[in-house]
Amino acid sequence: MATAAKRLSKDFTKGNVAKQLLWFTLPFMASNALQVLYSTIDMIIVGEYVGTPGLSAVSQSSQILNFATMVCLGFSNAGQVLISQALGAGKRKEMNQIIGTLFSLIMILALILTGIILGARTWILDVMNIPEESYAYAMDYLVICGAGLIFTAGYNMVSAVLRGMGDSKRPFYYLVVAAVLNTVLDLVFVIVGAQLWKKANRIDPVSEANKLKFWLWNNMGVIACVVAFVPVIILLLSNKNLDKKTKTIATVVAIIALLIGGVCSYDFNPVSEEQQEAA
User: Does the predicted TM-score (pTM) go above 0.85?
Assistant: First the structure.
């Protein structure tokens, strides 16, 4: 039992502390960067195709969801500290109790917050004085994301436990599974999405007056492909717990997927607003 628990944890006080902390934080930095990039692209798409009402709806409704997420994240971070302290002191029984309490507390809290958001959604939007043209969009966004709050809280909770134990091996096994699914699904959705994006640009093209904007807008599928696969490749290359053969195969597969998705997503013959008007 003690041996199994030892394999799950990592002692950062032995060896080069700075180096260990650097390798420990890189995956979390990459995850945060990925989330920001995805959010940015989502906002660009909403702003361009739904317009100002949609952009306003997402911006305002997300404040409520961010508040609920931060509440759960705060308790998760507190639990992470307690787990680290108990692990460092060798109090395995106490650590297990902390983990159990953390799971119960976060799940109950997430359910309560979800109930409040869904039950009081009309009152919340009225108090926030959401513009009439954005109200329907804001309601849809709040309901959909509010219903998924428990999954966000669950992710933060599990991540806190793993971070608290300093475990980098098992989380990476989960990452390999997720990376395989991510690679397959991203490749499918990126290519399909890119083709739909190209068709949409043929119907309603943008002006080529600004060359950079014109290129970026017509090749949004390429950008999405890079955002989807590059973090996975970085995590694969930076992980030291995977054997060389497995790392090489996984990295090559991810790079091939990136290239295939990029080539299929690239618009080699984009149509501009000026060309459409001239025709």
Answer: no
